[in-house]
Automatic annotation (TrEMBL):
<keyword id="KW-0830">Ubiquinone</keyword>
<dbReference type="GO" id="GO:0006979">
    <property type="term" value="P:response to oxidative stress"/>
</dbReference>
<protein>
    <submittedName>
        <fullName>NADH:ubiquinone oxidoreductase subunit</fullName>
    </submittedName>
</protein>
<dbReference type="InterPro" id="IPR007763">
    <property type="entry name" value="NDUFA12"/>
</dbReference>
<feature type="region of interest" description="Disordered">
    <location>
        <begin position="85"/>
        <end position="135"/>
    </location>
</feature>
<dbReference type="GO" id="GO:0045271">
    <property type="term" value="C:respiratory chain complex I"/>
</dbReference>
<dbReference type="Pfam" id="PF05071">
    <property type="entry name" value="NDUFA12"/>
</dbReference>
């Protein structure tokens, strides 16, 4: 029952019933990535007058987070190339890093040097700053 309600009312927990219905009716499955995300394109393969290109979308396996799309699929989704990674021997480049989840709002979030939220001690002021005073 909980999954039914989540699918019916929320989009951030994966996909809604409306999205699944649209995908079933108008989508053609192109492939799946290592995270279990499934990629689709328009069955008719016609150029959409609203978008001016072929419509492509993804149904996420789990929470909806755009950073979970691997580099090869990202290029296909954003029309950088027309061949999906399932139809070619795509190999990530050495500089492309594996996915790391978005840690914003957690203890593992990035905090730059000098942040008051950082556990480290802040360096003392050096006296090289003069505050601005009006007039």
């Amino acid at each position: 029952m909980k999954n039914f309600l989540l699918r019916f009312f929320t989009w951030w927990n994966s996909y809604t019933f409306g999205t699944k219905l649209y995908t079933t009716r108008f989508g053609e499955k192109v492939g799946e990535d290592e995270f279990g995300n499934v990629y689709y394109r328009q069955k008719s393969k016609e150029i959409s007058p609203d978008f001016r290109f072929e419509r492509r979308w993804v149904l996420y396996n789990g929470p909806v987070e755009a950073s979970r799309i691997p580099p090869g699929w990202w290029g296909w989704m954003h029309h950088r190339h027309d061949t999906p990674p399932t139809q070619e021997a795509y190999k990530p480049r050495p500089w492309q890093k594996p996915h790391r989840p978005n840690m914003t709002g957690t203890r593992e979030a990035y905090r730059p040097a000098g942040s008051i939220l950082r556990d480290a001690h802040r360096p003392a002021a050096t006296g090289d700053y003069d505050a601005w005073t009006p007039g």
